[in-house]
Design a protein that fits this description.
By secondary structure, the chain is an alpha/beta fold. It contains 13 helices and 14 strands. The structure holds pyridoxal-5'-phosphate. The site of pyridoxal-5'-phosphate has 12 residues, from helix 3.
């Protein structure tokens, strides 16, 4: 027998309580019972997003939430600026293009965080309808300073909507949509929310709702105006992912029992433990400026075949981590530490990493990573 340890930055582990809830027999969604559950879930989502109201749930993976943002806030021929610090930043530009929106790209070297002052120069060049950015660029392990970027945007281009992909940020560290003046914030179910993939969540500011009214983009399934009208009445426009909503109800309960402050503190602690282990093993962190608390990207040391690290960790230890995507394939590996994970999970990952590195011929002091992580966890 070998146990399976899923430690990627999405999908993430699903708690047994959530799995059990999702195994319940289906009820019909046009009923009082389902409305009660959706009402509770809506309240929980407002709490998690730290907003007044109206987080919209969609039956889609996270990318569906990104597409909904573009489809509802812009019109064909419109212009947007997309921050591209990795694979997911690139996705913003691709979605814009497919909707006939001109997306200029603000390039950030992979592993770096966007410099708000530099971004300011680009924002001034044109009257952009929207700025698209990741809070946490999962492909590199870097964060962008959303609060500073939003403040800067409000100053230099008050009409530009700030649209944030917070898919590996929300429920990991503090993001405050209303307080920071953001216009759209979205996430997906299979990251910090401890669920299988299949749900996307999006919140819009009143300005953004006004933009959704003005937009003349073609949209049907992802028409957020229609969803808002329905979800205010605790129902959905189309058949919801009923079982996932059951699971979400339980996951939100678990998160509320832990508390937002403790959730953020736990993720910060796990991230620090992993980074400390990486340093102790003489490895290099890939992100250089602001490091995400949801995932740690590590440079593959010279002389080691990049893909071998995740492969051997899975084969020999049942530990599934992620490799690099796109141009970073073989150059980095990524350990996810978001969602239903704790200190013991991190020790499993670090232990397996040490063992695999030793077998692959990397010279290390075995146990140094574990010791460093344990020191962090001991406080
Ligand atoms: C996971 C992820 C996505 C969404 O991907 P899906 O596969 O569509 O769920 C988008 N952005 C970021 C930053 C992510 O981490």
């Amino acid at each position: 027998m070998r146990k399976y340890h899923l430690l990627t930055p999405g999908p993430t582990q699903v708690p047994p309580q959530v799995l059990e809830a999702m195994a319940r027999p289906l009820i019909h969604h046009r009923t009082k019972e389902f409305e009660t559950i959706l009402g509770r879930v809506r309240e929980g989502l407002s709490w998690l997003f730290q907003v007044e109201d109206d987080v919209i749930s969609l039956a889609a993976s996270g990318t569906g939430g990104m597409e909904a943002a573009v489809a509802n806030l812009l019109s064909p021929g419109g212009t947007a600026l997309a921050v591209r610090g990795g694979r997911f930043g690139e996705r913003w530009a691709e979605i814009c293009m497919s909707f006939g929106v001109r997306a200029d790209v603000f390039r950030v070297e992979e592993g770096r965080s966007a410099d708000p002052a530099e971004l300011e120069g680009h924002l001034k060049e044109r009257d952009y309808k929207a700025l698209f950015v990741q809070a946490s660029e999962t492909s590199t392990g870097a964060k962008h300073d959303i609060k500073a970027i939003s403040e800067m945007t409000r100053n230099v281009s008050p009409g530009t909507l700030v649209v944030v992909d917070a898919i590996t940020a929300l429920g990991v560290y503090d993001v405050r949509p209303e307080e920071w003046g953001l216009d759209a914030v979205l996430t997906g179910s299979q990251k910090a929310l401890m669920l299988p993939p299949g749900l996307a969540f999006i919140w819009l500011s009143e300005r953004a709702w006004a933009a959704a009214e003005e937009s003349n983009n073609a949209r049907y399934y992802f028409d957020l105006r229609m969803e808002r009208k329905n979800q205010k009445k605790f129902t959905t426009a189309w058949t919801p992912a009923i079982s996932l909503i059951y699971g979400l109800d339980v996951a939100l309960d678990m998160m509320r029992a832990e508390g937002l402050g403790e959730i953020f503190a736990r993720h910060a602690r796990l991230a620090e433990g992993v980074r400390s282990a990486v340093n102790a093993l003489g490895l290099e962190l890939f992100a250089k400026d602001l490091l995400s608390e949801s995932v740690t990207a590590v440079e593959v040391p010279a002389g080691i075949e990049g893909a071998a690290i995740p492969r051997e960790m899975a084969k020999g230890h049942g530990v599934t981590i992620a490799g690099g995507q796109g141009a970073l394939k073989g150059k980095i590996f990524r350990i996810g530490h978001l969602g239903y994970v704790d200190e013991s999970d991190m020790l499993i990952a670090v232990g397996a990493l040490e063992a695999v590195l030793a077998v692959l011929g990397y010279r290390l002091k075995e146990g140094a990573g574990l010791l460093a992580a344990k020191e962090v966890f001991a406080g």
